[in-house]
Design brief:
The structure is a single chain. The chain is of the alpha+beta class and 393 residues long. The protein has three domains: 13-109, Gcn5-related N-acetyltransferase (GNAT) (Aminopeptidase), CATH 3.40.630; 140-273, Gcn5-related N-acetyltransferase (GNAT) (Aminopeptidase); 284-381, SCP2 sterol-binding domain (Nonspecific Lipid-transfer Protein, Chain A, 2-Layer Sandwich). Helix content is 29%, strand content 34%. The protein contains twelve helices and 17 strands. The strands form two sheets. Strands 1, 2, 3, 4, 5, 6, 7, 8, 9, 10, 11 and 12 form a twelve-stranded mixed beta sheet that branches. Strands 15-14-13-16-17 form a five-stranded mixed beta sheet. A hairpin with an 8-residue loop joins β13 (305-312) and β14 (321-328). The longest helix is centred in the first third of the chain and has 15 residues, at 13-27.
């Protein structure tokens, strides 16, 4: 991997436009959409990479957090990784990723997540597949739900803090959802390339029990698509009211689509299984600060265990060596030392940390070595719902 070096935000408007052009070429994005994207993320999130004084590429680091075990863990989201064609195959992308990982470590972003266009590059930087994003599609006409005990009203700006709190209550029940920053709420309310969504609060009297943001999009032969960009439902009644909302679009909408997980509780309360689930993609996770990441997530409260790790990390020396992980009462403590009887690469720790892969699966793939007793302890420590995400970046 290329030697890590310091990357900085654009020093001028000209430098920003040059990087924007590189990104437009890499992702075949129209200029207007590209500029709107960087306007939303902010120029301060951009990091540029120079080769012999020339701008070779850049990326975006979005400062946020991700929910694991009921706790929001500080995370840097990597996006818009782009290298100018004339600088490709020179180790530029690897150098950018190594520099980004080191910066995130210094800033206390103990995790990093990205959606990969390729796997080898990011695996060399210590990332591994650790969660999914699924597309859920169903025909509104097949829904039989007609539950209207709860009211639905359009979300006002004054009610938005309430909506954010409801999202956090919903997200913390799962592994993988983002603790959203402003950029992602903008994407929910004003999605790229589509009209603004309309948001509706689901209430029992004045009490908020859920919400939904959706928009209808014209399709062929006069039909429409109901595209749900976000929702959170906190009670079974709210789930049934949301399904009724979808069913109410049956006259003109041929399909309703949203992103989620096959274990979505909304699917569990449906009277029939008329939906179809498609794997849209997988995201990769990087443990940036081993001790910080393990201590920041939550764990099953009834589990008590001790694991002795030996980890390899070619980019961050602080993650190399032997560590003792002790879990009790839903929290963890990490200290250097121990026998290091569980051997793995920092990359292989990511799917274990997120709950995407069990220790047995990792061992079968040759990515983890452990005694049967330590394997059982790892299984109990990292037990939890399968990791997923609804947001793209």
């Amino acid at each position: 991997m290329a030697r890590p070096r310091l990357m900085k935000p654009p020093a001028s408007e000209e430098e920003f436009l040059a990087y924007s052009k590189i990104a437009e070429t890499a992702f075949a994005t129209p200029r207007k959409e590209s500029l709107e994207y960087f306007e939303r993320t902010g120029h301060d999130t951009i990091r540029l990479y120079h080769d012999r004084g020339e701008l070779a590429g850049g990326l975006v680091i979005l400062p946020m957090a991700q929910w694991f075990g009921g706790r929001a863990v500080p995370m840097g989201g990597i996006a818009a990784v782009a290298v100018d064609p004339q600088f490709r195959d020179r180790g530029v992308a690897g150098g950018m990723m190594a520099a980004a990982v080191r910066e995130m470590y210094q800033r206390g972003q103990v995790l990093s997540t990205l959606y990969p266009a390729t796997l080898p590059l990011y695996r060399r930087a210590g990332y591994e597949l650790a969660g999914t994003i699924h597309e859920i599609k169903l025909p509104p006409r097949d829904l039989v739900e007609r539950e209207r005990k709860l009211t639905m009203e359009e979300i006002t700006p004054e009610a938005f803090p309430e909506i954010q709190r409801a999202y956090r209550l919903y997200a913390r029940q799962h592994n993988g959802p983002l603790d959203r920053i402003r950029y992602f709420w903008q994407r929910v309310q004003k999605p790229f390339g589509m009209p603004p969504t309309r948001g509706y609060a689901i209430r029992r009297g004045r009490k908020l029990e859920g919400y939904v943001y959706a928009v209808t999009k014209p399709q062929d032969q006069g039909y429409q698509l109901l595209r749900i960009f976000d929702y959170a439902v906190l009670t079974p009644a709210a789930m049934r009211r949301l399904l009724t909302f979808i069913a109410d679009h049956r006259t003109l909408c041929e399909s309703a689509i949203w992103y989620g997980t096959p274990s979505d509780p909304l699917l569990l309360v449906m009277a029939e299984h008329t939906y179809r689930i498609r794997l849209l993609g997988q995201w990769m996770l990087r443990i940036v600060d081993l001790a910080g990441a393990l201590e920041a997530r939550g764990y099953p409260r009834g589990v008590k265990g001790r694991v002795q790790l030996r980890v390899r990390d070619e980019i961050l020396r602080a993650n190399n060596g032997a560590f003792v992980l002790e879990v009790e009462g839903g929290r963890a403590r990490v200290r250097p030392g121990g026998k290091g009887s569980v051997k793995l690469h920092i990359r292989s720790l990511a799917p274990l940390y997120s709950g995407h892969m069990t220790p047995e699966v990792l061992a079968a793939a040759g990515q983890l070595e452990a005694t049967p007793r330590q394997m059982a302890t790892l299984t109990s420590i990292f037990a939890g719902p399968a990791p997923w995400m609804a947001d793209l970046f």
